[in-house]
Amino acid sequence: MGPGPSGIHPSVLAAMAAPTVGHLDPYFLRVMDEVQSMLRHVFQTTNPMTMAVSGTGSAGMEACVVNLVEPGDRMIVGVNGVFGGRMADVAGRAGAIVTTLERPFGEVFSPQEVADAVKRVSPKVVGIVHAETSTGARQPLEEIAGIVHEAGALLLVDCVTSLAGIPVEIDRLGIDAAYSGSQKCLSCPPGLAPVTFGPRALEAMDRRRTKVASWYLDIGLLRNYWGQNRAYHHTAPINMNYALHQALRLVVEEGLPARFARHALHHAALRAGLEAMGIRYSVAADNCLPMLNSVLIPDGADDAAVRTQLLNQFGIEIGGGLGPMKGKTWRIGLMGETARMSHVLLFLAALEQCLRHQRVHLAPGAAVAAANQYYLAH
Ligand SMILES: *Cc1c(COP(=O)(O)O)cnc(C)c1O
């Protein structure tokens, strides 16, 4: 129940143990085709250039940024948490002239703020994080693509934590490029980064004057392997692709609407339980992510001691705060397979036990009762 990696279905782990075939084996090429088509489904896009980059979510971030910007290009990055900060760092290293749009941790950007910044800077790319895992805030994306496109810029969105947990509507929203990671709501081990590029992004890549600074992450070269040519580029991590293939099958089988509803249900039950014991969220209710619950550590509780006891006595991992939230918040994940009633109820009971060990008495019994009540009513 941390901020990722999430729980993994046994069939995904079993898929990883299948025999390793060659990266050009016809069987593996079919696995790749199916991974691509299921990723299009999850990203809600028809973009042909949708694939899994070999590497974790940060490799997906880097792949998007280095392919979209050339040295000297202007890029705006929304920084309201650790991952926006990372994107700005990556863009700077790629030679972009970066303008950061900043908000305190836990807050989100308004379309107006983005519009003002775009007018001021006239960037080539605007990068924004959909689900800030460091803060638990959900960035509304409606209207933003229109604003960015009107200024002739491209919209890049970090969907690492949002993909397969809340809707990521690449085509409807007009998102030009996006990246994710396998180990959050897709519930696969870490190691692959789904990415998707729309027609505007591909045109911008075709118009580049300079080579992409990263050979490994050059989408132009990767297109030859994941596209029709099947030209050797690097040895794909075969067994990781088996795992992602199976994880995506489970997502497709459940169905996106049911999967989003499941995340929302368990988030609401967890929230009912936490609030019944007097624990408050660090993000305004309107912007709370269902898969990442960031709450304020109650007075008198020792951050590390509670997390250690949860892990050692109950086998439950939760995350601590990052950056300025270190020591102030806990981050409770309900990502993918982890979003289950059994997890929510055990966690609430266990948390109460750990808090009472520290003489923090918060309405004993109330949390589990409130979560149970929520489940019974919904
Ligand atoms: C986890 C995460 C990343 C980085 O992914 P890694 O797999 O750790 O490299 C980037 N952005 C967001 C929003 C994340 O949650």
Strand residues, percent = 5-15%
Q: Secondary-structure element sequence?
A: HHEHEHEHEEEHEHEEHHHHEHEEHH
Mean pLDDT: 97
Helix/strand-derived class?
Answer: alpha/beta
Can you count the beta strands?
12
CATH class value of the largest domain: Alpha Beta
Spans of 5+ residues with little confidence (pLDDT < 50)?
A: none
Largest sheet strand order: 1-9-8-7-4-2-3
Q: Please summarize the sheet with the most strands.
A: 7 strands, mixed
Bound molecules: pyridoxal-5'-phosphate
What is the approximate shape?
Answer: globular
Query: How far apart are the first and last residues' alpha carbons, in Å?
Result: 22 Å
Description of the structure:
This protein has 378 residues and is an alpha/beta fold. The protein folds into 2 domains: 10-254, Aspartate Aminotransferase, domain 2; 256-377, Aspartate Aminotransferase, domain 1, CATH 3.90.1150.10. The chain has 14 helices and 12 strands. It has helices spanning 10-16, 26-43, 57-68, 82-93, 111-121, 144-150, 170-173, 199-206, 219-226, 238-254, 256-276, 303-314, 341-357, 366-377; strands at residues 50-54, 74-79, 97-102, 125-129, 131-132, 137-138, 154-158, 177-179, 192-197, 292-296, 319-320, 329-333. The strands form 3 sheets. It has a 7-stranded mixed sheet with strand order 1-9-8-7-4-2-3, sandwiched between helices. It has a 3-stranded antiparallel sheet with strand order 10-12-11, covered by helices on one side. A two-stranded antiparallel ribbon has the order 5-6. β7 (154-158), α7 (170-173) and β8 (177-179) form a beta-alpha-beta unit. The relative contact order is 0.16. The structure holds pyridoxal-5'-phosphate (PLP). Pyridoxal-5'-phosphate (PLP) binds at residues 4, 56-58, 61, 83, 129, 131, 133, 158, 160-161, 181, 190. Pyridoxal-5'-phosphate binds next to α3.
